[in-house]
Amino acid sequence: MEIFGIPMQAMMGQLLIGLINGSFYALLSLGLAVIFGLLNIINFTHGAQYMMGAFVAFLLLEKLGIGYWWALVLSPVLVGFTGVVIERTMLSRLYKLDHLYGLLLTFGLALIIQGLFRNEYGSSGLPYRIPDELTGARNLGFMFLPNYRAWVIVASLVICLATWYVIERTKLGAYLRAATENPALVQAFGINVPRMITLTYGFGVGLAALAGVMAAPIYQVSPQMGADLIIVVFAVVVIGGMGSIMGSIVTGFGLGLIEGLTKVFYPEASNTVIFIIMAIVLLIRPAGLFGTQK
Length: 294
Known about the structure:
By secondary structure, the protein is mostly helical. It has eleven helices and four strands.
């Protein structure tokens, strides 16, 4: 069976790849949106922290024999803790300054982290095996769906929606949003606002590390894996609306699918289609699809 002259199997295969890429776009842009929306920090270190998540999982396996499932828990916690240290020692000094200072600091940190890992492990990818429980594939009739890739899509969607629910629909989320608007008032209710801000940054970093662990078996573990992805993820955040949680989720998955379809119908544009969409959105709606004008 063909659609517009394209075999069904080829089209569905590219859509699957697009959905997998969209899963990582959504997770990473969600972490960026949480950090920017609640802390007003443009976190350029996000790509390096995604890479650190993959490397921590790799080192846990190689050095301690800790497998994928425990790494999925430990890696975000460990990398998130490094985020807490960065926020307390560096970023907390910049909140009253222009956004440019935070961007320059995080960009410099990203270069330092990537350089350290590249010097230690080189630029080539290191393999990270799929857990035994998720090996194999399912026959859907028109294509084979690898179990691990199905897990990545479902897990990413669940994590994204759970994060949105906590921030938008719970008392904790209300406190977080209120702390960005009027920290003195929230502090008056007995809430430790600086600690809340620190933990929020650590959570955003943990989301990046979680995405890195999930990406490791698919893309291998490489010091450059974050640098290759972060520019696209920033474009996703801009299209969805800076700081918009739902915008990051919907735009991340949606642009992954659009990118996959572009590879089918016009492969030459697949590497630029997201940036073309970003330019169009900025011309029509500068605040992004889900953003609010200020």
